[in-house]
Structures are given as structure tokens and as C-alpha cells.
Amino acid sequence: MRVTVRLFARLRELVGAGELSRNVAAGAVVAVVWDDLAREYPAISPYAGSMSCAVNAEYARMTTVVDEDDEVAFLPPVSGG
Amino acid sequence: MAVKVHIPTPLRPFTDKLDVVDVEGATVGELLTNLTTKFSGLRQHLFTPEGRMRSFVNVYVNDEDIRYLQKDQTPVKADDSVSIIPSVAGGSSATVAPTALPQLSGDEVQRYSRHLILPEVGMDGQRTLKAAKVLCIGAGGLGSPAAMYLAAAGVGTLGIVDFDVVDTSNLQRQILHGTPDIGRPKLESAKDRLFSLNPNVHVETYETALSSENALRLFEPYDVILDGTDNFPTRYLVNDACVLLAKPNAYGSIFRFEGQASVFATKNGPCYRCLYPEPPPPGLVPSCAEGGVLGVLPGIIGTIQATETIKLILGAGEPLIGRFLIYDALRMRFRELKLRKDAECPVCGMHPTVTALIDYEQFCGVKPAAEDGVNDAITDEMLPRELKERLDRGEAIVVVDVREPQEYQINRIAGSTLIPLGELPQRFGELDANAAIVCQCKSGVRSAKATGFLRSIGFKNVRNLAGGILGWIDQVDPSQPKY
Predict the structure, then answer these.
(1) pLDDT at B136 (0 to 100)
(2) In CATH, what is the architecture of B376-475?
(3) What is the fold of B132-363?
(4) Which of B274, B285, B328 minimises the CB distance to A77?
(5) B2-86 against B132-363: fold identical
(6) Are B331 and A54 a contacting pair at CB < 8 A?
């Protein structure tokens, strides 16, 4: 099934795009979407423990199940002030 | 049908000392009308003379703010629990007769006239602003516009915590400070600027680094804390202190062209840790100094923080609670995420494990636990002169520049290899683990992290260039520009 992945801040820069259409197995959880992306773009993998994620603009966990056409967002923390 | 209405302590003198009163009514509006009929002394605390509910009175039905339900039309049933909760700021304004709020002078009435004619502010609201105390953490990119708008709006007491001096490179965004202020403590220039903007505002300055030792004491007198810091340890510290003291945190943070804002640590709202329970490994997320930042970006985010602060004080509108705002200046887009309080949150959850302030440098991995010896990376530094001499002798030293490509364009050590710190975990394979390596960045902080990282994965001969490229320019090559 297709999902839209949305990336912010440094993740967007490391992957080179803010929005990607990805194919994942039906019933996949957010962690599967992330792992799949991190395999293709290993530079993002150090962010795994500290970023937060959202499904359809609602805060989610890596264990949240995603559906067809869902939007999965990954947000790294930023600290500038 | 009688419903139980919970009365806060300061209002109990007007309810014959009762903390719970049984009142008849089918809606919140009916309940409050009947309540103030029964206890007429209460009326002036809850309603204006025109009969509108005072802006700083918050009413909750089963822990839901009626502003997000049907306001005074919100229906109530017999087993509902209705609470009158003092507004977060203006101190205990909901519990103090409006006559106890400070009066506005003639000058102030004129100055705030565009506020006074707004129904959401009015005389009561402006006096509540005057009674309010807001603490800005940092007088930098976010703190500058936030403090200026809060002062202009007439927030009575503005505290600022900072210990920095004004640097030329601050002026691209930190609009509290001007060119003649270069080299002055930021608190001094902030005080001057805010006084000239609005002499009615009392500015309290704290020239100190916020720490676990002083945070609770510094926050205590304030109604709202505005987080404008620039590093993760302080962000977690501000969050935890706000949760422990039950003070709202008007949060903002920036990175290059993107900003975030939210309001954390309110009664039923989430906190920063609900969103980001784990800090990133040190060095992973570039700071403004390392990654750069669009100058106007903190202007937008800091102004959002000031807006939310004012709304919290007034009890007006819909605060950014449980909502995480993400702003992208390059694409000019705002997005919003729904956030929930995490029942498992270690600080604001059901069973908190963090019940006092901790060592945040250690929590964020910035300061390693004393025994693990990573500090060697800092002691084992090489001075720029030594590096120059050894390179001149023809020694095979690999200089690894761990800055970003844009910085590399400004100045560099000839022959150095550019691998930005954030890419090092993926690209260390490009380096020979047995080679003599000197890591270098702008001033030596990022390269110390790189040195520690390379050693931790088995590189034998890695040292850190003391003072970075700036030290190199000072001691070896003054022909290059500094930034």
C-alpha cells in the first residue's frame, strides 16, 4: 500500500525531499515505514531514538499501525533559539 | 437536578467556606447564575458589572475547559464535576476582586487604547496584563521579539535570564540589541531597549546560566515561562521545572528555515517530554551557530510565543495547548499536529519518575558520566601552531573538517577533508582508522564530539584542533576571514 512520508528539518535535508510516496506492506506500523526509509537513506538512522512521529497530523508512536494513503510525518527535535 | 461545583480555596470565603456546592441547573450558565444568586458575594468575582463572565475565570466540566465545549451553554448532568479554576496568570486574578488589580495611569490608558477597545482585553484584561509576570529564558533570537512585544503589550513584570554578551553575528536576528551594544551584556542592552519601548514595564534581569540549582527559585514568582533557549539540556530543564511548578511554558524552537511552537505544561495539556521523551545524541542536531538560521525566523516564532503568552494571561481565545505548530519559512507553510498528554510521560504522566530537577547535561549526553573517560577528547587537544609545524614537516596528518559545506566555503585549512559532524557516523569508513587524524570545526566544540566519536569506534590516533578554524586564523593564517 502507498503512504505519504513527510519529513521535517534535518531529516528533510538528509533525504533531500520533504514529501515522499512510499510502498509498505499492508498492516505495517510506523517503525516499518521508518526502517524502510532508513535503509535507503542511512544518514537519517541516528535520529531514530529522538524524533517524534505523527500519522495524519496526529502525534503517534512507532507502534501505530498505518493505513493506505495515510500521511506519516517524522519530526526531529530542534533546539535553536 | 443538583450538580456539584468545586470552589477554589480563595473563593471559599464567599461560599460559607464550602469547597463543594450543590447547585441546580442544566447548563454551566444556569449553574453559575444560581451559584451567584445563592452566594451573592461571589458574583463580582465571576462576572463583570455587565453580566459577562470575567475573562480570567476558567470553568471546567469533567476536566474539559468549557471554552472548547459549548461555553456557558455547555450542558451538565447530575454526576458531572464542575470546577472553577483560577486563570494561569495575573497571579490569582480570578480569585482577587478586580479592584485588587493594579490601576492604569492616564499614560497607560492612552498607550494601550488599541487593546482597551478589544472586548477580549478591555480594562480588566489590560490590568491583568499589568499584574502578570513573564520570564523569558534567553535574550537571543526568540527572546528578542518576544520580550519586545510583551513589553509593548504592557505585561507588568518581565524577567530575562541570560549571561551572554552581544556579538556582531547576533545582530542579524536578535533585534533587542543594536550595533552600539556589541560587547555589552545582552541583559543591559535588553533593559535599555525595553525601557525605551515601555517605561511602565518592570524588567528583572538574571545574569546567570539557568541550572537545576536555580531554576525553581527563578521561575517561582512568574506566571508564564517563555522558552527561548538554544540548547537541549536547557529545554528539558525548562520543561521539567514548568511541570514541577505547574507553570505554562510558551515554547518555541528554530532550525535554519523551520520553527516549532506550542504551549506545554498546562493543567491537562502535554509537555515537551510527551513529544520528545529522548534527547538526540549530542552533535546530531546542529545549533544556529553550526547550522545557520534565517534571521527573520525567530522573529516569527518568538512573536507566536508572545501571542500565546498574552492569550494565556488574558484567558482569551484558543491557546496552542495540545497542538504543535510547525512553520516552514522557505515554503511559507504552517502545519499543526495534535498532541496528547502521555500517561506514561516520566515527568507529567500518571506515575512520574522525574519528581525533582536532574542533571540535564548528563541526560542529554553533553557531559559524560565522570568515570567513562571520554573527557580525554577535550584534554588531548592540538594547538594550531603545532599542527602547522607538523604539516610543514611533511607529517601525514589528515585534517578532518567537521563543519557544514557552507562554512567550509568561508575559510578552511588547505588540504583538509570535509565530513560534516552529522554525516560522520555514516562516512567514517572514508578515513583510515590507523592514520593520524586532527578533527577541526569552527571553535573546537563539534570537533571534540567528532574526536570522541572516532575514538569510541576504534580510531587510534585522533586529536582535536584547539580553537578550531578561528584559532588557526589567529595563530597561523590571519589572511582568511572569520565568521
Answers:
(1) 98
(2) 3-Layer(aba) Sandwich (3.40)
(3) Rossmann fold (3.40.50)
(4) B285
(5) no
(6) no
